[in-house]
Amino acid sequence: MQTHDAARAPHPGGAPGRRSRTGTRGGPGRKALAILATLALASTLAACGGGDDDESADGKIRLTVATFNEFGYEDLITEYNEMQDEVVVEQKKAGQANEHQDNLYTKLAAGSGLSDIEAIEVDWLAALMQQSDAFVDLSDPEVEGRWLDWKTEAATTDDGKLIGYGTDVGPQALCYRADLFEKAGLPTDREEVAKRFTTWDDYFEAGSEFVEKVPDAVWYDSSGATAQAMINQTQYTFEDEDDNVIAADNPDVKRIFDTVTSYSEQGLSTRLPQWEEDWVSSFQKDAFATMACPGWMLGVIEGNSEGVEGWDVAGVFPGGPGVWGGSYLTVPEQGEHQEEAIALAKWLTAPEQQAKAYTAKATFPSQVEALEDPVVAESKREFFNNAPVGQILVQQAKAIEFIPYKGPKFADIITAFQQAIQRVDEGQESPDEAWESFLADVERLG
Amino acid sequence: MTLESSSRPGRAAGSPAGEGETPSPAGGPEDLLQESEREPGHPPRQRTPVVAARRPGSWRSRFFRLEARTAPYLYISPFFLLFAVVGLFPLLYTAYVSVHQWSLLGGQGDFIGLDNYRRVLADRYFWNALRNTLSIFLLSSVPQVVIALCLAGLLDTQLRGRTLWRMSVMLPFVVAPAAVALIFGNVFGDRYGLANSVLEAIGVSGVAWHTDTLASHLAIASMVNWRWTGYNALIFLAAMQAVPRDLYESASLDGAGRVRQFVSITVPMIRPTLLFVIITSTIGGLQIFAEPRLFDTKGLGGSDRQYQTLTMYLWELGWRVRDLGMASAVAWLLFLIIVVFALVNLWLSHRAGSLSRGSRRTSRGRSRRRTPAPPTLEAP
Q1: Chain A 102-161, CB below 8 Å of chain B: which residues?
Q2: In terms of Cα–Cα distance, which of A334, A432, A337, A437 is closest to A56?
Q3: Which of A185, A212, B286, B362 counts the highest number of beta carbons within 10 A?
Q4: B284–A17 C-beta distance less than 8 A
Q5: Residues A26-72: pLDDT tens digits?
Q6: Do residues A166 and A345 touch, judged by C-beta distance below 8 A?
């Protein structure tokens, strides 16, 4: 779902770690080792023989859906299984987006082993679009117009092939601590806040004011996250439409870098990298007053801020609306039951189902009709001072005109970009040095 | 291969290989086995007379002779087959990938010779990763072996509740690395971590565990040590328990204290085990991945790659930059580095061994025979 939502500690596929320790040993271990080796060999050979387990004993087709983090599909899959007789659906959940991504890439490369339906994150979309042959074309007159236009456009190749059905999106709003705002003499009402922070200049100015009046806290949660929010408002940041890397020459990139690093030096940022332990802890320490808030972030804030009161959300984002994260369901070509998989993907991403997923796990739907659904549009969140979250996010989502173009190197470059900012935050490099080393990193990525 | 060495694993390997390949009628190695079991103390007999004496020249005897010669290999073949499948093949295939352009998603490209190696060696992050790997390896392996040795020495004494202590040193080992990373992540938080709270409470300013290179290496090394020290201690303990107790008795009659006994008897007596542990720690230490990978969420080893190790660098190239060719080149370079380290280890220990043999030839000679064979890595 969300970019870099690493929750806490990401989990690499298989740590090549220190397995060697359990290696060969002589003496009494030999017998056990020999038995083990024989068994392992036997099972390897058996696995190679390839038992076809796609069909369960009762003759039903077994379909697997691989997702990461929370898609809110648990109840939907139960419902689907009860609804029809030919197919049994199983969900494979990866805890972390990284883990899912590594698995997806590895098995795409191997040409086998993928689930019948694979979820993908918008940040990897470009890299996967280059391998569009590996995915089934999902375009279908039946589902035309189901999604917000830009959501479908991003997953459509030049020759009109649709490789994924949209699930959720992350329209950005602004989350803030009303209690800290009050201390600083800033407006606390979400309507007034929305009026106050329409541009980044307004936002940073108020921040400078805030840190003077409330010395214990800073203005926003993380420099890297703020930079990412700003990048989400730029159509072409690191790559142009032909995937040429333009990071070094794009004035927007330099502008965002300068803005974020200079305000960080003025003390507006916690200087903590997003998702790290310290960042998670900072929610409990009343360390900052605002943060960029894509829909899915509401759940993160709520989870990290247990016992903290005063969070609210305003229907505005400095500098205009933007979108952060969001996913798709794809059907890999290597799957054996593509027809059934397509039917399932179609059903899961239908407006009614996504509205239910929203209720379950707050994944904000990307389907036009779902945005009208009262379950979504009228939803409120008690933790955020009972804010009309549905209404705010629908309004933000509808205002989006484009989504930033993310070429195949986007994810690598933005990581390097955020690391450069972090080096400034940590005092390891001056902004100029960090910019130079960022350029060197971009050069290295080629 | 002598009969003795071949018959043992043959027996241990069980039947699968033998059954599948050659039905083994009486007169094969089993007969020999029984004989050698009947007279355990004796050196094994020559194999030719036993078989050939029965029906010289016939096809059966030729068959038996062939079988006697090949069966042991068949018995041990499962391991080697397994090794070929999961060890040798990946090694060679990695070499094959490393001389090609090879994208993770796009697959095989052109043959480019040693270009991938050249690019890796020209990349400053490779050298950075090499430095980090060596530094974390030294900070983890050296204290780990020393502490494990002392811990095993303590566990080898007549403690009350011995089993409990021995089990509890093993406890960290069964905790999943991800859980370890989570716990230590809280301890080594730069700002709100436990370690810094303690330091600040005693008036020392906090340490930037994720920013400062040496501090991050220490933090990661402590994770590794926490996990592996108990494991190594148990291996040492097993070896120590096989040291004949009368040596200690004589030593204490001679007036040697506990420490002297430990240094002069225990440590020299478990030298082969020590060597085994040092080499496995070296291999493990140079491949260290999970702990530094989980030390932050991006997995690149910090904002300035302060703790990116070689395996993390490999992972970055393979799964982030998606260049399997370069990643394979790194894998091979790492393999060569490990081989060099293992050889240096062997050489050093042989030198140490010959030095100590030279100085205490007599005691060494006697003790050697009595030492039960712990895992041996010395060349035969």
Answers
A1: 102, 105-106, 108-109, 127-128, 130-131, 134
A2: A337
A3: B286
A4: yes
A5: 344 455 555 555 555 555 444 444 444 555 557 789 999 999 988 99
A6: no
